[in-house]
Amino acid sequence: MADNDQILRLPMPGPTPLEPPAEWEGLRRRCPVADVELPSGDRAKFLSRYDDVRAILSDPRFARPTAADEGAARIAPEGAGGPAADGDSSLAIPQTGEPHQRWRRRVSKYFTAKRMAQLRPAMARTAEALIDDMVAQGQPGDLKAALGFPLPVYVICDILGVPAEDRDRFSHWSDAFLNVTRLSGEQSAASQAEFTAYMSAHIAATRAEPGEDLISMLIKETGTDGAGMSDAELLTTAMGLLVAGHETTANMIGKMTAMLLADRGRWERLLEDPSLVRGAVEEALRLDANLGFGLRRYLTEDVEVAGEVLPSGTTVVCGMPSANRDERAFDDPDDMVLTRTPNPHLTFGAGPHSCLGQALARTELQVVLEVMLRKLPGLRLAVPVEELPRVEGLLVGGLTAVPVRW
After folding, report:
1. Residue 142: beta bridge partners?
2. Where is this region: Disordered (predicted)?
3. Which CATH class is domain 8-405?
4. Coil, strand, or helix at residue 404?
5. CB of 87 within 8 A of CB of 65?
6. Among candidates 344, 338, 298, which has minimal Cα distance to 318?
7. Per-residue pLDDT tens for 212-247?
8. What pLDDT is attached to residue 227?
9. Rounded distance between C-alpha atoms, residue 229 and residue 192, angstroms
């Protein structure tokens, strides 16, 4: 177990794809502010306790590092990594203060409860069709390839008004954007250029002929400053939402299903009482031990955390998955309690930078679980949990495949 003079390396893999690293529990007890080394070789501070992670994420003074932050820790090694790994994913979006909040207010107008409810029937039909295709191809199937990956792509393409038939290209661009070690810097840059050109052309076409999608809404809207979003802001918004709206949810569909099937009693309970679906989704989000690197924050002034003063210029990695298992915040934190309420997990962050698309992600996860329970009541994993293959080399964690039978 690490003490203050030992350096842990991120990411910290668990013993199996669904279990947390043993180090987390010890860090929460003895070293809540730990020194860590990233794949780049840069050093950062890792926060493992719920209250500390929530406090930093909720603090409006601090945002994720950008290329302009001197000395900020980079995740990717030199010559590798996509824009998100290098700290450049913010592009034209203001990251702090009122400009950031103004941008959030504009975008969040699309992700209302009413609009999410309107999206549910089409999501359910898409999920049903994808499951029918998987069943028609015979057993075993790969739930991630058949359902987990395509569903969020269809949904986010519809929201942005881009053709769903381009989903394979989006997958490639998304991987490059979130790449840590999988691609070279040159490969990532080439993908970024393609992605930028594609979305720029889409925004120009949407300006000429607006529809009812999110980009059209942002183009039509004039802010309180009398101006609409610039093309640069629209480009960053569209690219960011496309990446965030498909990669993380695609991974979570597979992880959630694997968690529920790892103990057959959980699946049986949901079959008996589908009203537990919402609670099951929240518990899967809380228990996700394979979330990725966690959120980075760049400290622009000295801050005290868990009795330790962290100087301005420190990069902090907020370990949300560890915080979500903090016994100080949750009873029986390592158990999957489908009826847990309240469930104030930090998977979507907290405060002024919390995930804008969390209502969409929750809706997709609820719909896909409802459809699976209805159409695939006999669903089970086709391999032992420990043999589920993990995603490697991306900022986000997940499973590369979820083999199932039904």
Report:
1. 403
2. 1-23, 75-101
3. mainly alpha
4. strand
5. yes
6. 298
7. 899 999 998 865 555 678 888 899 888 888 777 777
8. 67
9. 21
